[in-house]
Specification:
Length: about 475
């Protein structure tokens, strides 16, 4: 039933009732809504605005409603426009007049902003935890890889050999930056709008600091108009999700390539692959493809909200009701993607021999052969030219540059000695790149220490987050 019936002579039509409703989406916020109402009622009583008995009845009633929703036994009424009305009208049905006092000094505008911020904090925190789990999986995989080398690529062409651990740690750094973005989104959401009321504040002596503290918000939003109309914190969350989804998508693309017959660098476990209904031999990297595919949804979610808030005048506009679906979708999609990616990385088999075998046809030593000449006095540009010709000769001969006879090298430049074969040693090529951030085992070990230190710091950052109201699972839809 509508809670604003007094001013209206007619009820809304079934069509507009359904069109205007947000309950199918915002019921996922029932725990946040109940936490917000309990905090508000306790504050009203502390300020002498309602009686202690009423506040107690409200708390008891709301807790019972939460237990019912948690258990999946709460009968949502499709005539309730949103989760706020659904809970408040059921509360009043259960406890009578006290339920009608809950909304004193409050509007659904500050109520929904409060619920959404609490949800954003919970979602950001669980994404931070998923992010940490994936970074741990990458570190474990990098450690397990030891000195395994693979052809490092540029333009998807063989470039120079690199440690597989080095390649995996590049992703660990990308996800470390994503953590920073998630933390920023958490901090943006961590401010209480409660007490802003509809837009202008209220005439009741509310204690905004008290409700903020009860709900675990670090601060109170200073401007009531901003409090009810700001959705930047959701944009921040969806942007953090989008960049992380793009990173997951890039890793997924590598997994798709690496697990193909052409590459064969890894074999996915059966649990993270699928077969074909017609081709008995197939083992497909469906889940990597799905993560890559879901990235489009997550980025679309961000764009949806950006476009929704563009051009909105202050303060609350009903357009803002369209803010939650995309944010919830982005966060839930990302959470699943992170879990599936962890599983893939944890259970893949690395085919180190295959990685090494394919390196015999990519002239991966070419740069080091040019460096060999440059280190003996030839200008690097000239050395590049000489080695380019040798690569061409190797291509014509159908072999790798390392398979050309030493005499061919000598003909190309008298600076070449018999020791040029040393420049073909792929492990030596890797080991020689000792610059900070380079691929030499010692340099990779150094960055591994830094990646691990980052994990420890970020784990501490999660511990230090202000309290969150966990998302309830009682309304997760089932097929
Ligand atoms: N369901 C609404 C939303 O999600 C709640 C706020 C409604 N406020 C209003 N003035 N109609 O935004």
């Amino acid at each position: 039933m509508a809670l604003w019936g007094g001013r209206f002579e007619d009820t809304v039509s079934e069509l507009t009732q359904e069109f205007g409703a947000s309950l199918p989406v915002d019921r996922q916020l029932y725990r946040q809504d109940i936490a917000g109402s309990c905090a508000h009622a306790a504050m009203l009583a502390a300020q002498g605005i309602i009686s202690a008995e009423d506040a107690e009845a409200i708390r008891g009633g709301l807790e019972a409603i939460q237990a019912d929703i948690d258990a999946g036994t709460f009968a949502f009424d499709i005539n309730d426009e949103d989760i706020h009305m659904a809970i408040e009208s059921e509360l009043t049905r259960r406890i009578g007049a006290a339920g009608g006092r809950l909304h004193t000094g409050r509007s659904r505008n500050d109520q929904v902003a409060t619920d959404t911020r609490l949800a954003a904090k919970a979602l950001a925190k669980s994404l931070m935890e998923g992010n940490l789990a994936l970074r741990h999986a990458l570190v474990d995989a990098a450690e397990a890889a030891g000195d395994t080398i693979l052809p490092g690529m540029t333009h998807l062409q063989h470039a120079q050999p690199v440690l597989f651990a080095h390649h995996l740690l590049a992703y660990a750094w990308m996800f470390a930056r994503d953590f920073t973005r998630l933390k920023a989104a958490f901090d943006a959401a961590d401010a209480s709008p409660l007490g802003a009321a509809a837009l202008a504040g209220t005439t009741y002596p509310l204690d905004r600091r008290m409700t903020a503290d009860t709900l675990g918000f670090s601060r109170v939003i200073e401007n009531s108009l901003d409090a009810v109309s700001d959705r930047d914190f959701l944009l921040d969350l969806e942007y953090a999700c989008s960049v992380m989804a793009v990173h997951l998508s890039r890793l997924s693309e590598e997994i798709v390539l690496w697990s193909s017959q052409e590459f064969g660098f890894i074999t996915l476990s059966d649990a993270f692959s699928t077969g074909s209904s017609i081709m008995p031999q197939k083992k497909n990297p469906d889940f990597a493809e799905l993560i890559r595919g879901k990235t489009g949804r997550v980025v679309g979610d961000l764009v949806q909200l950006l476009v929704t808030v563009k051009g909105l005048p202050l303060a609350y506009n009903k357009d803002l009701q369209e803010d939650k679906e995309s944010a919830l979708d982005a966060a839930h999609t990302l959470e699943q993607c992170l879990t599936v990616m962890c599983g893939m990385v944890d259970t893949w088999t690395v085919n180190a021999d295959r990685m090494r075998a394919v390196m015999h046809r990519g002239h991966l030593a070419a740069t080091d052969v040019a460096d060999y000449l440059a280190k003996r006095g030839m200008p690097f540009r000239q050395a590049h030219e000489v080695v380019g010709k040798l690569v061409l000769a190797a291509e014509h001969a159908g072999c790798d540059i390392s398979e050309l006879p030493v005499s061919t090298f000598r003909e190309a430049s008298e600076l070449f000695g018999d020791d040029v074969v040393g420049a073909f040693d792929l492990d030596a090529i890797v080991a020689a790149r000792t610059t900070q951030g380079g691929t030499a085992p010692a340099a990779v070990a150094d960055q591994m220490e830094k990646v691990k230190a980052g994990l420890v710091a970020d784990e501490a950052a999660v511990e230090a987050l202000s309290p969150v109201v966990e998302m309830g699972t009682g309304t997760r839809s089932v097929l």
